[in-house]
Amino acid sequence: MDCLSRRGLISAASVGVTGPLLVVDDAEAGSRALIRTNQVPVGGGVVIRNRRVVVTQPRAGRFRVFSAICTHQGCTVSHVADRRIVCPCHGSRYAITDGAVVAGPAPRPLPRRAFVVRRGRIFLT
């Protein structure tokens, strides 16, 4: 279920979402790379919808990759704001460092995805 909608985006704006809102449908056209490292903001992250992952950079040069599927009811997370991965469907929030639930109703952390960084690009393994 993809919950990023016009209504969701307007809702996010109305509650004062701060920070970069970057949703990537195709991070690297024609490539297996998820995204370039310089496209992931420090202290933030990027949702890559077509790969169903969210890539975060909690500290400079430290990357994490998580499933973008909320553990509550399977919605796709919409964005990263204030060091939190946000699900627009029911308000769950996850930490960008380890995917831990910081606001429910999600019952479990976001699952981590294995990845490698090569030549400035992030690849799933």
UniProtKB/TrEMBL annotation:
Keyword Ribosomal protein listed: no
InterPro entries listed in its UniProt record: Rieske_2Fe-2S, Rieske_2Fe-2S_sf, Rieske_Fe-S_prot, Rieske_Fe-S_prot_C
One Pfam family of this chain: Rieske
GO cellular component: membrane
Cofactor(s) needed for function: [2Fe-2S] cluster
Domain Rieske stretches: 32-124
Record keywords: 2Fe-2S, Disulfide bond, Iron, Iron-sulfur, Metal-binding
The keyword Disulfide bond appears for this protein: yes
MF terms (GO), sorted A to Z: 2 iron, 2 sulfur cluster binding; metal ion binding; monooxygenase activity; oxidoreductase activity, acting on paired donors, with incorporation or reduction of molecular oxygen
Superkingdom, natural source: Bacteria
Function: Iron-sulfur subunit of the cytochrome bc1 complex, an essential component of the respiratory electron transport chain required for ATP synthesis. The bc1 complex catalyzes the oxidation of menaquinol and the reduction of cytochrome c in the respiratory chain. The bc1 complex operates through a Q-cycle mechanism that couples electron transfer to generation of the proton gradient that drives ATP synthesis.
Protein name as annotated: Cytochrome bc1 complex Rieske iron-sulfur subunit
